[in-house]
Amino acid sequence: MKALFSRMINLGFHKMHRSLLIILGCILLGNLMAQDHLELKWSVEYRADGDPDKPRLAEASVPGAVQLDIAKAEGYAPYYFGENWRDYLWMEDQEFVYVTNFHKPDMKPGERLVFRSLGIDYEFEIILNGRKLLYQEGMFTPVRLDLTDLLNVNNELRIRIFPIPKKHPEPVDRSQASASVKPAVSYGWDWHPRLVPSGIWDDTWLEILPGSYLNEVSVQYTLSEELDKAFIMVEAMGKGLTACSMAWNLADSSGNKVDMGYLKSYMDRGVLYTEIANPELWWPHDHGEPYLYSYTLKLTDQSGKLLQTYSGHMGFRRVKLVMNEGAWSEPEGFPKSRSVAPIQLEINGQKIFCKGSNWVNPEIFPGIITVKRYEELLDRAVEANFNMLRIWGGGIVNKESFYEFCDQKGIMVWQEFPLACNNYEGTPEYLEVLKQESESIIRRIRKHPSLAMWSGGNELFNSWSGMTDQALAIRLLNSQCLELDPYTPFISTSPLMGMGHGHYVFRDQETGEEVYSTMLRAHNTAYTEFGMPGPSPVEILETIIPDSELWPPLPGTSWESHHAYNAWVGDTWLMMDMIEGYFGRAAKLDELVEMGQLLQSEGYKAIYEEARRQKPYCSMALNWCYNEPWPTAANNSIINWPNLPKPAFYAVRDACRPVLVSARNYKLTWMRGEEFSCQLWILNDQYRTLDPGMVKATLMAGKKVLELDSWVFGNVESNSNLEGPVLKVELPHWQSDGFTLHLEVLGHPEYTSEYTFLLSD
Amino acid sequence: MKALFSRMINLGFHKMHRSLLIILGCILLGNLMAQDHLELKWSVEYRADGDPDKPRLAEASVPGAVQLDIAKAEGYAPYYFGENWRDYLWMEDQEFVYVTNFHKPDMKPGERLVFRSLGIDYEFEIILNGRKLLYQEGMFTPVRLDLTDLLNVNNELRIRIFPIPKKHPEPVDRSQASASVKPAVSYGWDWHPRLVPSGIWDDTWLEILPGSYLNEVSVQYTLSEELDKAFIMVEAMGKGLTACSMAWNLADSSGNKVDMGYLKSYMDRGVLYTEIANPELWWPHDHGEPYLYSYTLKLTDQSGKLLQTYSGHMGFRRVKLVMNEGAWSEPEGFPKSRSVAPIQLEINGQKIFCKGSNWVNPEIFPGIITVKRYEELLDRAVEANFNMLRIWGGGIVNKESFYEFCDQKGIMVWQEFPLACNNYEGTPEYLEVLKQESESIIRRIRKHPSLAMWSGGNELFNSWSGMTDQALAIRLLNSQCLELDPYTPFISTSPLMGMGHGHYVFRDQETGEEVYSTMLRAHNTAYTEFGMPGPSPVEILETIIPDSELWPPLPGTSWESHHAYNAWVGDTWLMMDMIEGYFGRAAKLDELVEMGQLLQSEGYKAIYEEARRQKPYCSMALNWCYNEPWPTAANNSIINWPNLPKPAFYAVRDACRPVLVSARNYKLTWMRGEEFSCQLWILNDQYRTLDPGMVKATLMAGKKVLELDSWVFGNVESNSNLEGPVLKVELPHWQSDGFTLHLEVLGHPEYTSEYTFLLSD
After folding, report:
1. Which pTM was predicted?
2. CATH 3.40.50.720 fits domain A229-278+280-314
3. Hey, is the C-beta of A665 within 8 angstroms of any chain B C-beta?
4. Which of A723, B96, B286, B679 holds its CA 20 to 30 A away from the CA of B336?
5. Confidence tier at B253 by pLDDT (50, 70, 90)
6. Tell me, which fold does domain B228-314 have in CATH?
7. Among all residues of chain B, which has the CA nearest to that of A492?
8. CA neighbours closer than 13 Å in the CB half-sphere of residue A473
C-alpha cells in the first residue's frame, strides 16, 4: 500500500523496482519523471581494503548493496564463481556512506518534502546538510523524515552505514548475529557463503506531500462465527486530518462497489467502523479462489480538492491452528505430560493439508531481488501444487511484492521473525530493537490474507540454539503478535513438540537407514523441514567451479565453497560416497549429477507421499528447501539459483497433486528373485468424493514388463486417503540395473505415479 | 504493604484480620479505635429460598461469605457434616446486598475518606447513598473509592453481589466457570463439594487520608550478573505528590540502614533509582537464609510534617528456569522435534531440587482463611522439608499474609492464575476481565522474593481442558507477566512437555501396575502432581459422616459426598477394593483406615524418593495435594482439614530430608522364600560433600531380624545422589503378614529410612 496521487521522486534508477510503487497517479508521475530531481543519483563512499586512508567513491544502485557497488567499481569478478566471495570479507568491518545531492524542488506553500525508505540494512544514520536527523538500528523499520524545514537550495543527504553487527569477533559464524535483528544466514550457512550485505535494500525516494496527508492506512477485520459478516476497521494516521475528509471505498474483484463510508478524525487519526455481509472468502488456490477486494481511501480538503489517494487490496479469511486429529488422545498413561502443540491449519473452517516448502532468500543481496524474481518463483510454487511457503527465520522478511503475489496466487505464508539457530539472549538493547523491528514487520504484513501464521524463528528450542520458552525474545514476539495481530496464529518456533525437522539425507550414513523406513517409523503432526540433497546440473556447475576443479569433485576446492563438502555433516551435500554406493563409480560429471538427482527425486517423493498418507494426524509437509540464494554445487533445494528447476522439482510437483495414486515403498535396492512389495493408496486432498475405480500396477525395466495385481477401489471420501492392498511379486532376473513401478488409475491419467528402484544380485 | 500513619476505620469486626493491617501508627490507631465509626457493622440482605418475596437481613462477617452469614442467620447445621452442603445450592443464582451505615467522620480540611477493599467476590456494584460508584467483575482487583465529596452526615454504603458467574446452566460443573476469572474449584471437584462462595472475602475498611497521599508503592530490582549489585527502582503513585517529599530507607534484617534517598516526583508519580552493593541474598530455607530487608517510604509535606509512611520488606534473589540436565540431548534422531520445556529452577545461580506439594484453598470460603491458618500450614510445610508450594490454578490467589510467611520461611511459590481444567475460550469480554485481574495479581505478588514462577493455570493443554498454545487467554497471561514481571519465569500451564502429572493411585486397577514400577519407567523432568489416596482418621470421619453410615463405607452415602466414592475414576478415593485386596477384609473402620494410610505413606515415599533418584534430569517432586478445604473421607492430601497431618505427612517429611539413605523398591507384596531385592542409594540435596560411611540393611518382622549385606560407600558429592548395590536375600518363612526394610547409616541416625512390605505365600 503506497501513497498515490502524491508526487514521488525515486532516488536512484532501478527500473524493476519502480513497478513496485503501484502508482495510479500516472499523470502526476509522468510529470514528476520529467523533473530535474530524477537526475539525482546515489554514490557510496568507502575505503578500499589495501588503501584505507583515501576514501573512494562508487556509483550506487538503490536499492542494492554497498558490496555490489564496490565490487563493480573495483572490477571484482562475479562473487558466485570459485572463491571470489572471499574478496568481500574485508568489507564486514567497514563503514560506508551513501551520498546524494539534490536541489530543493519547487513546492507549493504548505507542501512537505519527505524522505522515505522502506529498508536500510542494518545500523545507520541519516544526515542532511551536515545535521544528523536519525540514528536507527534495524533494516525492517521504514524511514520517514520530513526534510522541508531543513532544506537549502542545494542539499546533501548522507546515509552512514555502520559495520555489520557482530556480537563477538570469534567464532566467525552465525552466532555473531545473535545480538541483532540482522538475518543470520549471511554470516554463513550450509548452503550460503559468508557474505554479509549492507546498504539500502528496499525502495527509497523523496516525496512531495500536501500540507495534510496520510502516513499509514490500516484495514483490519474480524469475521462472524458463521463467516457471513465481516466487521471492518479502517484506520488512518497522518497530519492535518481533522480539516479533511477521508472517503473509504471497497470494491469486489470486478470493481463493483461493495461498501463506502467516511472516516471520523480525531487529532492525526481517522477511524471508520463498517461491516459487509456475505463477503467472498479468500482461499488457498487449491481449495478455492484467492478472492481479493480492492479499496481506496481518498483524502480531500475542505474545498473538496483531492489531496491523496491510498489504495490496496484485502482478502477475508479466518485462520486457526487447531489440534491435529488424534493428537488429543496422546500422550497415554500416567504420569501424563501435555498434549502436543496444534499445527493443523484451518482456513475458513476447513482443515487444509499444507504442502509446500521452505523459502530462503532468492539472492544473497536482498537489495537486488526483483519483483520479477518473486513472481517467477511464486508461479513455480503454484506449478508445484504448493499451497504454503514457510519464510524461514534465517533470512529476510520479504519485500511487499512477495506477499502481494502470495495474496493473488493463493499461497499461504508461514512468516518467521529473523531469528534462527542462535541463542538470542534477551538483553534490554536487543529486545528494544526486536520490539521495534517486529512491530514494523507485523504492521506491514498482517494485512495480507496469505499470512497464515507467525513464528518466532527457526529451531530455537533445539540444543544447537539453546533458547527455551523462557527466552524474553520469544515471549516478546508472542506478545507483539497478540497485540498487533491477535487472530493470526503464533508459534514460538519450529519445530514444536510433535512436529518434525529432518532428516536431510536419502540414507543415514551412520545407521544405514533409508528415507523410506525413517518415514515409516516417524509419527509427527507435521513435517516442516525435510531435506534431500541433489547436485546441481552441469551447466550451473560450469559457471561456479573452475574447469580444472570440475572433475572429479574434491573437498578443498570450489566444490566445498559451494557446499558440496563439509557443509553440514559427513560429505554433505554432494554425498558422493552414498551416490556411488548405490550406483557404482561415475565415469564423468553428468553421470554423477544424474544419479544424485535421481536419489533426490525419489527421496522427496517418498517423504511427501508418506506425510500425506499420515493425514489426518499429519497436516503438513514442507521440504527443505525451495530455492537458493546463489548457485550451489549441491543442495537440498528443488530449484537452482536463480530459477532453474531440478528434476526433483517435478517429482515433488507430482507428489503434491491434489489427487494421485501412491505407493508406500520400503527400500530402493531389490535383488533379482526377491519378493518385491509395495502398498497402494489413493491420496485425496480435495474436498470432494472421488468415484470408484481401478489401479493398474506394472513393473518395467526397459521393454520388459511385469503386471502386478490390480486394485479395484470404492469411493474415496472427501479430503481423505484410501488405503489399498499390499502387492507382492517375485522379481524377475532382469539384467537391467533398475526398474520402475508404474501406477495408473484407469480413466485418470492425471493420477499416474511412477517410482524408480535399483536391481542387484 | 499498607498505608500507615493514615487513620483506618475497619468495617466489620474480625479480630484476626486486624493483625493483617501491619499498623505501625499505634497511637493514631488507638485513637481511631475509640471513635464511633468502629461501631459500624455490615449486614447482608437476602431472599430466602422458600420465601423469595420478603428480603431478610443477616449480620455479616467481613471478610467472610454471604453463604456463611445466611447459614448462621437461618440456623443451618455445619456444611461439612453429612449432606448439609446441599442446603447452600439455592444461593448460587441469588443476588445479595451488603449494607452498612456510618456517620461522616471528623476530618480536617483537605483530608479524604476512602473506601478500600482488598477483595470482593465476584461480580458487584458499590452504591453510596443511592448512587452507583463502581461496577466490577473480578475478585482479585482491590477497590479504592474516594467517598469524600459524596458524603452526607449519615451514609449508607451498599455492595450488591450478583449471582455467581455461570457460562451456561448445564452441565452443572466446573465448565460453568470457564467464562470468568472465578476459581473453578468451588463448582465441584473430586475433593471439593459444589459450594460456591460469594461476598467480601478480604480486608475492607474506610481510611482517612491526608490531602496528599500514596496509593501504591512498588519496589523492583534487578541483580548484576555476579549478584554483587542490586539495582533498585522505587516507584510511588498517589495524589498531590509534587508538593511533598518522599524519603526512602532500606534497612537490613538487624535494622541497620543500608540505603536511603529521595524520590523525584512528576505529576502523581515519584521515582527513585538507587543501587546497593553486595546484597544479602534470599534463599529457600533448605539452601540458606531467607534474608529479608525492610524499607520505609515517608511522605512529608513542605513544612516537614509526616503525612504517611509505607513500609514493607524485600528480598533479593535471581530466579530462572533452565534446561534440565540431559534434556538438551533429547529428542534423539530424525525427524527431530523440539527439546522439552525447562523446569529446573535456579535460585541465585544454584540449581535446586524442588520438593513440595500442591496447595489448595484451606477453606471452602476464602473469606474465613485466617492468618493463623496460613502460618500453621506453612510451618508444617517447613517441617515437611518442603521448599516449594504450587498454588494450584483451580483455587484462589492467596491473601497477602500467605506470601509474607513464604518470604519469611523460605518457601518458594509457584503461582498459577485462576484457570483450571477448562477451555477458557478467549472472548473479548473474558479477556478484558482476565487482563484486569492478572494485572492486579501480578502487581500484588511480584514483590515477594518467595515468588519463583508464574503459570497460566492447571492442565490446560490436556484433552480434558482442550486449550492450546494458541489460546488467547494464555498468550495474554504470558504477555502480562512479561510486561509487569519480566524476570520471573512464566510457564503456560502444568504439565508442560516433559513434566508429569499423575498417577493418583497406589496400584492402577486396570493394569495392575504398582507405583514402584510406574515410577521406574517414568522419565520426566519434574513430577508436579502425583497422588496417593488415604482415608481420613476416624476422629474426622465421625465429624462428617452420620453414625448410621459410618460402617461399612458405602457409595451413595455421606462417604460419597465426602469423596470416598466416584470422586474421579473407579472407587476413588477410598479405594476399599484395593486396600482389601492387599490386606484382606477389614473388621472395622480403624483397621481400614490404618491399612489405607499405610498404602498412602508407602506410596508417597516411593514416588518422592524415586523422583529424587532421577535427579539431575528430574528437578522437582510435588505431590497432589498438601491440604484440603473441608474434611474429606478420603483424599490424596497429606494434611486433613483444618491442619491435622496424616501418617503420610511424616512419611513424606522423611522422604524429603536433605540427606537420607533410600531404597529403590520393586513391589509391595513378597512371597515367603522368594528372593527379596532392593537397591541402596544415598540422596543428597545439600550443597556439601558427605563423608564416606557404611549402610546397614536389615529386614525385620516383629522380633525376627535378617541382616543383609552392608554397603561401604565413599564420598557423596555435593547436590548429588550416590547409587549403591542391589541387595538380594531369600526371604525367610516368617509367619507375620509383613516385614520392614530398615536402613541405617552408621553414625548418622538422622539418615535412617524404613519401608514396609507385605508377606504372603
Report:
1. 0.95
2. no
3. no
4. A723
5. very high
6. Immunoglobulin-like (2.60.40)
7. B469
8. 29
